[in-house]
Design goal:
The protein contains 1 helix and 6 strands. Strands 1-2-3-6-5-4 form a 6-stranded antiparallel beta barrel. Mean pLDDT is about 90; it is low at about 5-10. Strand 5 (about 80-95) and strand 6 form a beta hairpin. By secondary structure, the protein is mostly beta strands.
């Protein structure tokens, strides 16, 4: 599965997200809203341009709402990046909230 924008205008890249650390990404449902704050954008060390069309990277978000979203694809809204579809997985929970990860290969 590949994380790509809903309207795939351009491939998602690490640089796009690195500039947005500390900003809010919102998942909206009919009866609820989850605000995820981007806490990390990390390039993966091993990148083979013959295999990967972009440098692989991962994102970590923290959501102060302690309800855990199931892993899966979510349409996520961002003030500057617009609406993007990202596959996220809950990886931890602590006093700050639930931490989610997205990996882009």
């Amino acid at each position: 599965m590949t994380n790509q924008p809903v309207a795939a205008a351009a491939p998602l890249r690490h640089e796009m997200f690195a500039a947005e650390i500390g900003t809010v990404f919102t998942i909206r449902f009919t009866d609820a809203q989850f605000d995820l704050v981007l806490s990390e954008a990390t390039l993966m060390e091993h990148h083979n341009p013959l295999v990967h069309t972009r440098a692989p990277f991962s994102l970590l978000f923290v959501c102060p709402d302690h309800r855990i979203l199931e892993q899966g694809n979510y349409a996520i809204d961002h003030e500057r990046l617009g609406r993007i579809e990202i596959f996220i997985v809950a990886v931890a929970a602590d006093a700050d909230g639930v931490h989610y990860e997205a990996v882009f290969n």
